[in-house]
Fold this protein.
Amino acid sequence: MHRREYPRRVFPRRVFSSMTARALGVAGLALLAMGRLQAAEAILNTPPKPKDWADLAQLPDWSGVWTPNVSDQERRETADPIPWNRKAAAEIADLEAQERAGNPKGLFVDCLPEGMPSWLLITHNAMEFLFTPGRVTILGEMDGNRLRRIYTDGRSHPADPDPSFHGHSIGHWDGQTLVVDTVGILPETYIAPSEAVGLPNNGDMHIVERIHLSGPDRLEDNLEITAPHVLTKTWKTSRFLFRQRARKYDIAEGVCLQGNFSEGKDSGGNSVFVPAAQTDKGNWLPPDK
Amino acid sequence: MVMRIEAVRARSFRGILIFALACSVIDVVPIPAVAHHSFAMFDFDKTVSCAATVKEFRWTNPHVTLLIEASPKAGDPPEIWSLELTSPGNLTRLGWTHSSFKPGDRIDIQFNPLRDGKHGGAFLQAKVLDTGQVFTSSVRDANDAPNLQ
């Protein structure tokens, strides 16, 4: 009887037998039940309410573009020693000797992201901070326009986060200070006080940052870097940023890999990128005579 | 008569060109200039100064490159040198644009040469002779103070 309710041209009897209908019905109910189960377990990012947007106005003003204090970075290459363990210290000494000899190792010439914490330690490029409900987002200028998402919605770290260059960051506001906790950083990510001196963290790195305005236009990031496979103890260091309002400081696109190519034409006259010859140090050399 | 004047001018210009394109090297107090990669391959104890002609200007990340033609020594034929700078973003803040230099521009240039003697260097300063405009490239000047104009 039930079968007769459907037009034959849509569900021909030879295809839609009662047995098939029963099988599909059971399968459908099972899928529906699974879907309800998944829906019950899904964690949703709820849409912000007007109050969530209004609360952002109570946060400190970090608007504008922020440029790194490059001179202070360079000063700290020697004035802010890193507690490397014995093995790491020997490797660092070798890298420093190579750099002094004018033969620096190119830690980042492959254009992979500098990652955490190196991009904070050595970047010469600007960044900006975006506050939205439940999140602080840092947008940078280099590494193909680097990006960090810092979740401030009260969540915890995943039990087993996917390793990434910038790790998994959660944050909360302690008064006017943003406290950021980062784990899940790739073992290959460098701890590098300069572009030529640094070592991979080798895993299990944990970084705590306290970021606050230490002047009207000066942002201070106090970092505590724990990396048990290369450091003997937590390294406490700081980096500083200056606020810029001039429009010429608006963040520019910064695709690192672009430097490995030059602009050319293909056989059809189309504008294309063609590989450019570089040294292993990342320098372009003039064309052969 | 006109042709003769032009010929004289051409000879004079060629003489000036050969003289002016010859680089001089002076020792200076080292000023490190690092960027996305280390700049330790450049000899900051030496500054090369000379007149040059722009061959190509590559406005790309992470380092802008200026290719120039200059004579290493007076009387030598001009050769191409590759000079490296910081990023387009930082240079924008120092007043540069992607069209700051064009092929054929005559410039006075200063740079720190590669230590290994190859024809590369770290850009210090250039003056475009036709306009008088001076370009510098210090990342500190672009970054190290708030509210830069």
Q: What stands out?
A: The radius of gyration of chain B is 17 Å.
